[in-house]
Amino acid sequence: MKRFFLGFLNDLQINLYKKLTVKIHHSFPRCVECLDTRVDSRSRGNDKKQNGNDREQNGNNKNGRCLQTLASLFLSIALISTSFIKISFAKENTEISSARNSKSFSLETLFKLALKQSEVIAINREKIKEAEAVFTQALGTILPHVYFSRTDTIQNTDNPSYKKENFEQKFVFKQTLFAGFKEFAGMAGSKAEINQKIYEKKHAERALFIDVSDTFYLLLELEETFNTLEMTKKILNDRISELKKRVSLGKSRPSEISSTEVTLFNLEAEIESVKIQKTTATHLMEFLIGQRIEHIAEEEKSDINLKNITEYLKEIPNRPEILAAKYALDAARKKSYIAKTGFLPEVNLETNYYGHKTSMPRDTDWSALITLDIPIFEGLETIGAVKQANSEEKQMKLSYKETERNAIREINNLYSLVLISSAKLTAMSKALKSAEENYTFQTEDYKVNMVNNLDVLSAIETLETTRKNFYNVYYENRRYYSELRAAVGDIPQMETK
After folding, report:
1. Do 70 and 23 meet the contact criterion of CB atoms below 8 Å apart?
2. Which of 300, 223, 315 is nearest to 478 (CA)?
3. Exposed e or buried b for every residue in 375-409, given b needs 16+ CB within 10 A?
4. What is the mean pLDDT of the chain?
5. Which CB contacts under 8 angstroms, 24+ apart, belong to 402-407?
6. Which of 351, 364, 423 is nearest to 174 (CA)?
7. What gap in Å lies between CA 207 and CA 487, rounded to an integer?
8. pLDDT tens digit sequence for 79-113
9. pLDDT of the residue at 45
């Protein structure tokens, strides 16, 4: 709107300048000719002075009119030049404002700052490390266990062939030969849990992006609402000034000023309310990114490139929460298998290498022991563990199906919202244009007493409401489209070093 008014004033002044140039072109030679004639008449001498008094008097009047014409022309040039300077300063201020906005925080920058600040993302990183530690433990069950053992014995004996104090030193190697392959199942389950935590972290990043995006577009909408209210406030102030002049001339009633002031004061209260909303939204954004912000701005205001819905539905299997639920189901299946291995026998190997041995036989350097354990009855512990694991597996399977169905519903809903908001935006664009034209027509008609002040106030209110609704729908459309892109994983990624 500001650029529209600047452009209109610029074109108007250019046209005035052209007309003034034409006027100067026609008037200036005649004025110069009159001045030259006066100078020539004075140079002829004093002998003809008496005879030319009347003629000189007429020339003076004519020259006076020429001087007045030249003065008015030069004054007009000065005023237009001043106006051009003002417009130049206005354009310069607009360029400075644009440059300042170019250094503002973009949505991508804010999201990357939020990733660094978010405690939820940091907790998810630690959960990944925890799952990796569990995998390391599962790997340790496959590898042999090696340790050093020393046994000191003190005994009370009267047999001279036995010492009262003996000790034994040995290196012990233990290895599980067979345990139903539960170690490998445990490793596979731990690997699935690692992947689950990784995609849960990505899902948390997606949720964080939506929070940042919603707050970002809310701030932009509130900024446009504030600008709209300030523009309306200026219009009403100008309106009151004009009404006061008309009242002094008897063309308007004092009640028209009062009704306009009521609208102005209500508007000022609404401006304060919007300021509070802006402050609250700014504090929320600062909480998300962990630092203060001064300005935010969209990188570009291009049209939304909406694909066919089938293109978005194809990305459902790659959604982070879908993959996290899938790996959670895999981990539950491995746990169920591990519980069932409790019914299988277990074979272990233990090897001892002696450094010092006092027990019989004393000349033994090493020994090996193979143990076979066959479970017969363990008080229903294994049966209970199997039932619990099977129940958890079924829960994970149902959770996976629910997550998949929710993803389909979310994409369908967001796609519909983008379509509807796009159609609303097209209609609101036309409504805003009509509201601006209506305000212009009502203002012009009021000057010729074709409408009353209430009609003008109604046009101002309609313009204000339509402009606010336009930006509400505009940023609502951007917000839905941003959520749709996030729903298929199209969010900024952190650069990994």
Report:
1. no
2. 300
3. eeeeeeebeebbeebbebbeebeeebeebbeebee
4. 80
5. 403/321, 403/322, 403/325, 404/316, 404/322, 404/325, 407/316, 407/319, 407/321, 407/322, 407/487
6. 351
7. 9
8. 444 443 343 334 434 433 443 344 578 999 999 99
9. 44
CA dist., res. 337 & res. 109, Å (int): 46
Dihedral over Cα of 17, 20, 22, 24: its sign: negative
Residue position matching structure tokens 């982070």: 320
Query: Which of these, 187, 142, 137, lies nearest to 330 by C-alpha position?
Result: 187
Q: How far apart are CA 174 and CA 142, in angstroms?
A: 11
Burial of residue 233 (number of CB atoms within 10 Å: 0-12, 13-18, 19+): middle
CA distance 206 to 209: 5
Q: What is the pLDDT of residue 70?
A: 43
- For 312-332, the pLDDT digits (tens) are 999 999 999 999 999 999 999
The amino acid at residue 52 is G
Tokens of residue 441, six digits: 């027509």
Which residue type occupies 269?
A: A
Q: Are 425 and 477 in contact (CB under 8 A)?
A: yes
What CA–CA distances, in Å, run from 437 to 13, 229, 281, 427, 432? 22, 18, 33, 16, 9
Name the phi and psi angles at 153, rounded to 5: -120, 130
Q: Is there a contact between 200 and 127 (Cβ–Cβ < 8 Å)?
A: yes
| Pair 441, 496: CB distance under 8 Å | no
Instruction: Return the amino acid letter for 455.
Output: D
Q: Check if the beta carbon of residue 226 is closer than 8 Å to that of residue 282.
A: no
Q: For 392-434, what is each residue's pLDDT tens digit?
A: 999 999 999 999 999 999 999 999 999 999 999 999 999 999 9
pTM score, whole prediction: 0.70
Beta bridge partners of 348: 176, 371
